[in-house]
Structures are given as structure tokens and as C-alpha cells.
Amino acid sequence: MDATDTQKSHVNRRSLLVGTAAAAAAGTAVGTAEAASPGSVTWDTEFDVVIAGFGLAGCSAAIEALDAKPDAKILILEKAPEEHAGGNSRASGQSLWRPKPNKQALMHYQRKMGEPNPIPEELLEFWADRLLELEPWIKDRAKEARQEYVTSAGTREMPEYGAEEAVLSATILPRPGGLWEAFKKNIDKRPVTVWYESPAVELVQDCESGEVFGVIVEQGGKRIAVRALGGVVMAVGGFENNMDMQRNYFGHDVYPFGTPYNTGDGIRMVQKAGADLWHMRARVQSGGIWPAIKVPEFDTVFMRDFQSREQTDYHSWIDVAADDRRFYDETERYSATHHKEKRHGHYFDTEFFQVQPVHMIFDETVCKNFCLMMKWMTWNAAVHRYDWSEDNSAEVEKGWVLKADTLAGLAFKMGRNADQIIRTVDEYNEACRAGKDEAFGRHPDTLSPIENGPFYAVKIVGGVVCTSGGAKRNKDSEVLDYDGKPIPGLYEAGNLGSFISHLYQNGAYLTEAMITGRTAGRNAVLRA
Ligand SMILES: Cc1cc2nc3c(=O)[nH]c(=O)nc-3n(C[C@H](O)[C@H](O)[C@H](O)COP(=O)(O)OP(=O)(O)OC[C@H]3O[C@@H](n4cnc5c(N)ncnc54)[C@H](O)[C@@H]3O)c2cc1C
């Protein structure tokens, strides 16, 4: 079904399309509305709930809305074509936070993780209650999809804040992609209308009360006015692919590991609707900025596979910064802290994205034995199914990985100062021979000299998992305005406006997407 089965319902209310008054004044039609004016909107079609975004938050909203009201008419709007739907949920590592049955421990841990920017207690308590009852619902999703649900102890991040008492893990296999595929199968089995290549672009809102009546969708070059009787659920993810927003709110050039379709549309829309924003910039990037490889052939970046002491035996490699020198302990296990390091009692993002350009330099031993690409998550793995060669040879061939017989030759290819690169490698090799890295305290087990030529280098950029910024929302997933009051008919779920703004426990985002999506879907449909 698409918007051609148009249902026109003229709304004789004093309504205003946010941001479209000017367009109407300038003679621009709103959808097919003949009478677009601040006084009226002509709808092309109508649903009980309109959900923007077909990631896990959007899926969860639709499933729950239908559970609450089985005859409800639900529309999911997805900006991407069907083969590219699924958002970051599809590209994710798929870890789900399976809580230990201890509400106080859960709340304590999450409270500590968000300490510099406290999470409202009411929201925290609601989240803990919902997380504690989530597992059977997830298992039902796996069962309906006939996919395997598996559990594990999981990675407990920042243990000093109470992870041990609060965290277990689970997922729906296979990796990559299986979790979202299971949810998509759940949606396919239900009477949910999905419009692909149909981004939500504007909210339709009463100019006085602020109530949201519907949404304007762009489809095939047309603008379509869709009325939402119960409400609009904004589940369009973050701004990972919007470099302008990254620079303004994060302050650095970082590239997405996930879907290329999350471009901060939701932030613009809720802001225009009068929402109060939060978590646009926090003390650290909660999901972390990870070492990434950007190549011209792909929009999104490859994640460099974890190269820590525990995760590989091949250590003849270093990273160098803009000044051609080392700058940190490269083999610390940053994957267990979402790429944060603790200094002076506080967690900070690791430095590598701030000292760009960075190159990883390695020798033949690493090249032959350690595939650089993380294969069980990222968009390039889950959607493009790019299969990086195990010995990196295909990528050397493509020129993504530089190769030279000498370090001087490699420095030339990197565009760096050869004398300094040779000095840096010499100093590192000397530390290896001494068994002690005076400069950065790299563990002695990881001190393998870079000496087995030929030599290789790959450029390392900052890769972002996801952003948390968006509208402030309450426990009912209602979007709040600048006075802290809900904007009637406007809901938000998932990464857009996530309650996570500081440290992050693996599995928290996807379970939050489910919890907030379910809440938004239920409340919106019951309001219809
Ligand atoms: C590499 C990677 C690993 C991760 N690993 C984990 C993990 O192990 N555990 C965990 O909990 N979290 C993880 N995350 C984070 C997690 O994936 C996200 O927090 C979660 O998927 C957010 O779900 P969402 O539904 O809010 O957004 P998304 O899944 O990103 O969905 C948003 C959807 O909205 C669509 N869209 C965008 N704009 C519009 C528009 N204007 N109109 C309509 N549709 C639009 C997009 O195309 C997309 O389909 C990871 C993320 C990445 C990238």
C-alpha cells in the first residue's frame, strides 16, 4: 500500500503545519492539500499511529500498539528502501542487556553511569521496571521469527559502578543482522503498513495547543499529509551521518558505523515542534568513538577489529598521531569501556580522534595473521556483506592498506615525515627489547617489535556508533516542550533523545529502544 489509496479528510480545526505556513504563503502545496493554510489541512490518508523509523524502536512501537489494540491502523515510515531498512539496529553488535533480578542494583548502576548528567529518578525507575520484565517479550520475538535466542554473562562495563550486580547479556542470532531480521519478520506477520523511501519531513501541529495531528511525508517527489489519530512516534535515530551536526554538537569529524540514513531529521523536526532538547553533547560520547577505516567506495566506515592484549596474539603494530609519534597505549582493552579510558578517576574518550590524522603502522606478521575488519557488526558487514580478506591482501591490492618494503617508503606513501616515523618505530622497538614501554605503559606481553617487513599502514579515523541527542522525553515516551510539558500526540523512542548521556553499558541502547518504543506505541494507540 502506498499513498495512492488516498483518503482525504479535511480537518476543520485551527491547525497549522509547523514550518509550512511560510510554504503555504509562498504558494507551495502541502501534500495534495488544496487548502493548505494556517486554518486547515487536507489529509491524504489517515492512521491511528504513524511511526517514523523502521529500526528496533519503530518495530517495538508497532508490535505493542497492535497488542494493545489489534484493529488499529499502524503506518511505519522508513526513509531507506526496503533492502536498506533497519537502521543501526541492523548494523549493531546485537548485545541486549539482560538484567539481573535486582531493581535497586539496576537503578544504582545506571544512576552512577549517568552521574554528570543525572537521569530523572522517575524515568530511571520506570526503565528498571520495564527492563526487568523485557526478556519474555524478546523471546517471543525470536520464537515468532523462528530464530535462536541465546544468553551469556556479557561484558560488564565500568565494574566499579556496580555492573556485576546488574548485568547479563542476550541476543537473537545470527550476527550480524539477525536481531533486526527477527523484528522485521514480526512486523511482516502483522497488519502494519510500511512505506519505504518515505521520510517523515514535517510534523503537523496546532499552532496554539501544540498538539501534533499528523506528519508530512516525502514520497516519490511528492509531499503527502498523513493524519495520525493517536499520535506520531518519532523513532528515526540520531545524527551520525550529519557532519555539520557532528561538528557542532560533538566537535569533531567522525564517521558512522551504522546506517547512512540517520541524518538528524528527527532533531530538526522535534525542535521545530517546540521540544526541549537534551544530550546533544555530553562529557563523553556514550557509545564511544572507535578506530575506523574509511574508504572511498563505502559511505560508512569499517570498524578496526579489537586489537587488545586479550583479543589478539599479534602485537607488532602502533598508532601514530599528526606529529608522527605514538600517543597512547594502543593495546589496552578499550572495547570493554566503549572506547573510554580512565584518568585521574574519570572516564574520557580515548584520544585518537582528536590527534588526527592517525595511521596504524604494522608489519607482515600482523598483516598475515590479523584481519583488520570487525565482521559481526557495522553496516558494511550486516548490509553490504563486505568480506574483508583474512590476510588483508585484497585490501592491500585495492590500495586501502598501504604497503612498502621500508619504513621510509611507507612514510612517503602516508605523506609523513620519514625521519620521525623511523625514529618512532625505533623507539617502540627499543621498548620491546627492554620489555618496558616507558612512554605509554603498554603491557609487556604486547611489546612485539615492528621488524618483519614489508611494512603496512592504514589510516584510522573516528567512527561513531550512535548519538543520543534529541527531545527530552518522560517515562510515557511523550516529547516535552520547553516548559517540561508533554506535546500532545508527539512521542519519541530509541536513540533519538535517548536517556543515556554519559557512560554506556553494552546492550542498554537496544533494550532502551524496545522499552521506549513499546511505551510510545501503546500510549499513542490508546490515545487514538
Ligand atoms: C556498529 C554498532 C554496534 C552497536 N552495538 C550495539 C549493541 O551491541 N547493543 C546495543 O544495545 N546497542 C548497540 N548499538 C546501538 C544500537 O544499534 C542503537 O542504539 C539502536 O539500534 C537504536 O535503535 P533506533 O530504532 O532508535 O534507531 P535505528 O535502528 O537507527 O533506526 C532508525 C530508522 O529511522 C530511519 N530514518 C531516518 N530518518 C528518517 C526519516 N526522516 N523518516 C523515516 N525514517 C527515517 C532510518 O533509516 C532507520 O531505519 C550499536 C550501533 C552500531 C552502529
Q: What top-tier CATH class of the largest domain fits best?
A: Alpha Beta
Overall outline = elongated
Mean pLDDT: 92
Secondary structural class = alpha+beta
Number of strands: 25
Cα-based radius of gyration, to the nearest Å: 25 Å
Compute the number of helices: 16
How does this structure look, described?
The protein has 528 residues and is α+β, with helices and mostly antiparallel strands. It folds into 2 domains: 1-88 and 177-285 and 466-528, FAD/NAD(P)-binding domain (3-Layer(bba) Sandwich); 289-464, Flavocytochrome C3, Chain A, domain 1 (Alpha-Beta Complex). 28% of the residues lie in helices and 23% in strands. The strands form 6 sheets. Strands 2, 4, 5, 9, 10, 11, 12, 24 and 25 form a 9-stranded mixed β-sheet that branches. Strands 13, 15, 16, 17, 20, 21 and 22 form a 7-stranded mixed β-sheet that branches. A 3-stranded antiparallel β-sheet has the order 6-8-7. Strand 4 (45-52), helix 2 (56-68) and strand 5 (74-77) form a beta-alpha-beta unit. The chain is elongated, with a radius of gyration of 25 Å. Residues 1-39 have low confidence and may be disordered. The structure holds flavin-adenine dinucleotide. Flavin-adenine dinucleotide binds next to helix 2, helix 3 and helix 16. The site of flavin-adenine dinucleotide (FAD) has 44 residues, from helix 2, helix 3 and helix 16.
